[in-house]
Each structure stands twice: as C-alpha cells, then as structure tokens.
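tool=predict chain=A
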Amino acid sequence: MSLITPLLEPDPYVVALEEVAALDRQIARLSADRARRVTDAKNHLHSQAPSDTSTGGPVWSTARVERVELVTELAQLTRRTEYRAATLVDTSTALVDLLPATLAAVTAGALSWEHAEVIAKHVDGLEDEALVSYDTRLAALATEVNPKQLDRKARAQVELAQPSTAVERAEKAAATRRIYVDPAADGMAYLTLFAPAPEIHAIADRAARLAAGLRADSDPRSMGHLKLDVLTDLMLNGETSIPGATRGVRGRVHVMVPAMTILGIGEEAAILRGYGPIDPATAAQLTAKATSWRRILTDPVTGRILTTDPRDYRPTARMIDHARLVHPTCVFPGCTVPSERADIDHTEDHALGGHTTPENLAPLSQGHHTVKHHTRWQITQNGDDTLTATSPAGYRYVIQPEGRMRPAPRALIDATATRAAATGTVAGSTEQEHGLADCPF
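tool=predict ok
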C-alpha cells in the first residue's frame, strides 16, 4: 500500500509577493505601450505644425510651440506636473527613437518605467556606436539593480562613451539648478534645492557641524531637528556674500485671518497665502508679530473679496494686490508659482479691447504668460473670480479662486440682519463703518 503525501498549501505571503511582482511586469508592459502612444501624439502634433499665435515680440519656433503645447496638454489631461509631463515625453521619445533594447526590455516586463527614466535621462549627446553600446549595456544591467544603483552605473557608462567633456556637461547641468516649495500636511512644507553636488554636500556638512556643536553644548533637540533649525536660521537671518545682492532682506508671509477668529469668537480657518488653511494657534502667533495690517472687506455670503477701483490703462497697486489676494498662485491650470512672482495679465488682451479692471486681471507666471500668448491655449474670466482655460486640444479646465474666505455662518448673517432691522440700520452703512474705526486691520 502506497502512501500519498498531501500537497502543502502555498504560503499566502509568498503568493502576495509574487502577485506584486507580476503586476509590476504588467505595469511595465503598459508603460511601454504608453510611450508609443505619447510618441504618436507628438508626431501627430508635429504634422499639424502649430505656429506662434502672439501679435508681438520674439516669435517662437514651431518646435518650441509643439513642445510647450504637448507638455501642457499632457500635464492637465493626466493630472501631472509639467515637469513630470516633460519627463514622460522625453523618456517616451528616447525609448521609441533611440533606445530599442531598453524599450524591448520594458515591453517584456523585465524593466520598470523608473529604470527606463534613468536610462533615458543620460542618453543626451550619445550617437552611433556609443549610443548602441550604452542602450545594450544598460538594458542588461537594469535587470539586476534598482533605479538608484542603475543611475550610478549609467553615469559611469556615459563617462566612457560621452564625446563631450565632463566640464561641458557639468556646466549644462548647472544651468538647470532651481528651488521650489511643495506643501505638506499639518502646516508643514518641503523646500527643495536642486544644485551642483559640491554645494549641496557643503550645505549639509555645515548644517551637521553646527548641529554637532549645539549638541555638544547640551542642546536637547535631536540632530535632525538641529540641522534643520540652524539652516532655517541661516537662511532667514544670515547675509549673502554675493556682490550686488540686497542686504537686510527679510522674508514676508501673507496671512488672511477672519476678524472673528482673531477676536476669539469665530472658528473660520486663517489662510496662509501660497499654502492654504493653517491652525488658529499658528495664525495667532503670526498676527501677534505682524508689522502691518490691512483690512479687506469680503462678501459675507460668498466670501468673495470686494473692491472698487478705476479702469486705468495700467493696473493700480490696489488692482495688483486684489488679483494676488484672489489668486495666490498663477491661474494657469496646475501651476503653483506664487502670485507675487507672477505677472499681472490682462486675461482679455488690452490690445484687443480688454479693460484694466479687477475682473480682467489675473496672475500668470512668466512662463505661462508666454504660453498664453504664443500657443493656442485660451483663458477667459467667468465673472465670479473663476477662470476657464481651454487647451489646444479643446479640453476645458476651471480655475477656482483660492483667496476666497469661508463664508460667514448663516446664523451670524441672519442675526446681523435681524439686529439691523430692529435698530433701523442697513448692513454696510456709514454707522457700521465708523464702528470699525478701532479695528487694527
């Protein structure tokens, strides 16, 4: 009589892991197909030969118009940042046109899209045999390492095959240095510096040395907190050594705080311009240290900022300030450039009859200001502080005003109306305005 050995049940943990790996291979195959579709879209747009639509100034080349229209179109349609959309276009184009071995590996599910991005970003300048060797070598290496390890290997491979000198490539890379801010949760934010590696490592080293000195003096903060705190102090209170730079400059923040919140009566959130709602304690701390106040009247029902200004040829300071209060960031879809660093644009061009009024003004970053004038993107005002942006492909995006306060509670509005009726006064009357004479903002 033979014994039958029962089959062991597969370990569910191992099964789950293998399913994750299988899904990654499927995602890679879909990513390869997406790269081909992106390249198709680029080629179809090229066949349309879109031209510069501006009426004055330097004329953009057809290639530049095509590039900007494709990147901005994809960014909005797929909810990417323009930087990530540009990376998608560049990686897709490199894979389809220059890197057949890498594209084949991604199509087979052997490489992830992250690996492909690493390989594609280093391909610039490689030609002929050097390009073929790089593609073949990196496609094979990528199956054995993660993207960060692959990046080091890719740079080493380029050093061997790159016809340009290391100095030329370093200078070209340094031209892309930038700084940007990303909001985070709970009143926090990220500050990112993209700069040459020696400077970044020197900054980190100085922070570590200063923090170590404070720790040696028994400072109770952790090393991580100390490094961040000393860098923050240096950036806010230190002076630049760059010749010609203005000294004594201090950073400015703009906080919109409902009067009732400051008085401790209401609970409406304060708004930190460029970020969003902040907690009452932080708002109180900022307002306590404020060097100046400005009273802004808002519609209690809609929360919309109210203003009355003349229709001059050039925007007045109050018009500019109003546009930036209503829209704390550039109004181009997806843009996060603060309005203080943006142009104040006539949504309907002044040369075409657009008036210089608050209803026709909005902040546009310098880059998107040129996009509006040189490409087929169109932006219109809707009359309620919202704008509609229409892309070259015909998609429409509505931009909401971020600088709108939360409407007053319905009960407060009703109580105010009842009290005004009982005393025979009208909301917004001169008597009420005199009652605000002692208001500090």
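The beta strands are 178-183, 189-194, 255-256, 270-272, 276-278, 343-346, 361-364, 378-381, 387-390, 396-399. DSSP finds 16 helices and ten strands in the chain.
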